[in-house]
Amino acid sequence: LGVVVDLGRYYNMWHILLPSMWQGNSALFEVGMCVCCYLTVLYIEFLPIICERFMGRVKVPGLPAWVNRAIDGLLRLADRTLSKVMTFFLMAGVVLSCMHQSSLGTLMVLAPSKLHPLWHTAVLPLQFLLSAFAVGLAMVVFESLLASRSLKRPFEMRVLAPYARFIPFLLTIYLAAKVIDMVDRGTWVYLTDASVRSVSYLFEVVVGVLLPLVMLLSHRLRRQPRWLFAAAAMVVFGVALNRINVFRVGYTAPYASGPYIPAWTEVLV
Questions:
Q1: Over the stretch 225-245, which tens digit does the pLDDT of each residue have?
Q2: Handedness of CA 60, 65, 70, 76 (dihedral sign)
Q3: Packing angle of the helix pair 65-109, 124-150 (nearest 10 deg)
Q4: How many CA atoms lie within 13 A of 199 on its CB side?
Q5: Interior CA angle at 106 toward 21 and 247, to 5°?
Q6: Under a CB-based contact definition with an 8 Å cutoff, are residues 13 and 4 in contact?
């Protein structure tokens, strides 16, 4: 449900299911198709857990015995088949998510007159993709520590501490892509106007990239669950704020110069 919101006009999502409404030149069409295919792949990747949980235990009340046997047979067939093809779906999940993340950036490349220069750039798809790489690893750490605390299990620091070493590397690449692009376009001058947008941009970069990068470079801090969780949460927050900045804070609609008051005829309709 959260991913569906990325489509913008999510209430028209059913259009994607009708080939007669496809538009191959639309960036939003690519986003929508990637989201639909990606969610389907995620359901398939989750199926082995369903098979393990219900195989041999299908007893749906009110259904004839033969229906329950048929469902159980389908679960067993899926369990035997998925192990042979799961590698393909894992690869498809990675490719589709990369396309989805970069295409979200493409949406705003198409709006140079509406998006603030601090965020609008021709390499916005690349920046979105690099930020997704970084936040993906950080989200694994964030969810693992949160799940361990919620389920009262020991933290898996033996795995998470060395795993987190890769996050600063990805954050550095992402930060370099932003800084090089900013210097190349000369948009750093907007950082000195003390506007809401400049403050939000600095907050996104400093709190969401620089601070966690420095924290995760420390071997001592990486081995402490509290600090590791804080750094991972900052990365997640920073990328989330980047999306909010691009699609909300830095975006100015053509009619945003004043309040919109509908005419009496529009109210009547």
A1: 999 999 999 999 999 999 999
A2: positive
A3: 140
A4: 3
A5: 100
A6: yes
What's the number of CA atoms in the CB half-sphere (13 Å) around residue 253? 7
Mean confidence (pLDDT) of the chain: 89
**Distance of alpha carbon 144 from alpha carbon 229, whole angstroms:** 9
Whether the per-residue pLDDT at 139 is higher than 90: the answer is: yes
- Cα separation, 27 vs 198, in Å, equals 28
8-state DSSP, 155: -
Nearest 10 degrees: Cα torsion 183, 187, 189, 195: -140
Q: Is the full-model pTM beyond 0.90?
A: no
- By CB atoms closer than 10 A (0-12, 13-18, 19+), residue 108 is buried
How many Cα atoms are found within 13 Å in the side-chain-facing hemisphere of 13? 16
Among candidate residues 13, 47, 57, 12, the one with its CA nearest the CA of residue 33: 13
Separation CA 118–CA 192 (nearest Å): 12
Give φ, ψ of 110 to 5 degrees: -75, -5
DSSP sequence for 230-246: HHHHHHHHHHHHHHHII
Phi then psi for residue 115, to 5 deg, are: -100, 135
d(CA 209, CA 231): 9
